[in-house]
Amino acid sequence: MDLSNLNFLAILVATLSTFVVGWLWYGPLFGKAWMSAVGVTEEDLEKGNMTKIFGLSFIFEFIMAFNLAMFLTGSPEAAEQMSAGTGAFYGFLTGFGWIFFALAVNSLYEDKSWKYIFINGGYWTVSFTVMGLIIGAWI
């Protein structure tokens, strides 16, 4: 596996971008709707182990950004053709085409609401689009 085309600073920034998108998405944009769909209150959320949640989230999201970077720039040919727009496009396809619908299938079996599906699937679609944009721009 050739890692020479990967920009690890771009992967790190792409990872951190998911926290910024998440702060906006699950905060001022859809925070109340998400809590309603999940059935939790702010008090419930405050009981969580934030060190564990944010630490593991960082690791998992780094792995996701690394994998996206491998798809986008893992070969010299792919790296030569990469741009911010192309990265954003493929990030969108990843987020919407794979992640959104994988979450939707699980959510259907878990009897979750459409609101839950659209909020969580939308978050991952936007997050992967931004990650792809960052990785594509920094090649």
TrEMBL record:
Coiled coil: none annotated. Keywords: Membrane, Transmembrane, Transmembrane helix. The keyword Membrane applies. The keyword Transmembrane applies. The chain crosses the membrane at residues 6-26, 53-75, 87-109, 116-138. This is DUF1761 domain-containing protein. It comes from Fodinibius salsisoli.
